Amino acid sequence: MMEQLKSIFSRGMSGNGTAIKSAFLAAFLVPLISCTNRELYACPDCETLPVQVIIHWQDAPQESLPEFMHTVWYPSRGGERTVADLKRDGGPERLAQEHYTAACFDYYGENGLEFRGSDTPAGLEAYTPAESGLYNRYGDPLPGEPTVAEPKTAAFYTHTCPQDVDMESVAPGDTLKLHFYPENVLREFTFLIHGIKGVKNMAYNSGAISGMSASYFIVRNQLSRSPSTVLFGNGGFRAIVNGRAYSWSREEREAFSRLNPDWDNEASADCWKDGWITGRFRTFGPVDGQTPIRLTIEAVSNANLYYTGAWGYWKGAWDESVLSQVQSALLGSGEGTVEERRQWWRQRNGGYDIVLDNFGRLEVPDVDVNPPGPTPGEGGINVGVGGWESTPVYE
């Protein structure tokens, strides 16, 4: 058990947010060595009982599941909480007879999330850490919106529910079984922007999405209502020089034909002949269904100069081009599971959550003369340049 504690402490010290995670782990280690501990100390005054925790994964993709799940048990009558790390499918635990508010979540995942407020159920929060970045004239931070990092993966599983430990309802010789049903509360949105000139001159791309929630209150099952701007750009972009000539898959062609029946005809709008950019961003989701949302895309040219376009907000005017599609992607339609309804929206919307016309907003000229963006070192929404991936450009 002592080796297990050392391992847990070691893992919590790695990665970003060391100080926060260390404090969080230190708070959690106290009850681990209290009288509720099931291995280190015997405590005759503690009437703990054996239970079996079962974690159900329903239809969750196997490749996204964590190796361990962290459990927190808050007794309704107050007192110290009980915490434990269990294997993915659960395991044995010892708990006092009590009514609990119980939370199960992936604390050690590689999703880049930080945690705070574990002392009370209402305060237990997972959040994306702050991220600093420089901005140009079309990427200035919105008033009151901090900038935060994008989650590293699109999976953070959690479940909170009331749990009763009452052995009177258990037959002699049986073990009380307690159940969790974790669900992923992160969301990955995909987007496509067509009608872009100068795609072949792009070396890197990055972006920012405003109006997003940067944190999730685990026990309350609520997003933070304070809007933040999520910066994204470590891979995920695809640039296509000529949308008409690109070798789309049959599924993609069918999707775009449903969205825009004449897109593949010679007489269709010129914007379909120019370049396309596709990408994705990860987030807990928008703070609500009314706060305006701005999507900003920045291109760094081969000459290391910056060019930026924005949708949802441009030159002092808001519109619902991004907000309406984000809401449709979240709610979906038709029948079936939430994910099936969301897939229905993507199929209807050209295979993406968000599809936008460039309207001449993002262009990278062949020759960088008086570029609209900042010169190198003066700006750009990009962060972590060393971790960038070149944007794949397809002819």
From TrEMBL:
Residues 376-387 have a biased composition (Gly residues). It comes from the Bacteria. It holds the Pfam family DUF5119. InterPro entries: DUF5119. Residues 372-395 are annotated as: Disordered. This is Uncharacterized protein. The lineage of its organism: Bacteria, Pseudomonadati, Bacteroidota, Bacteroidia, Bacteroidales.
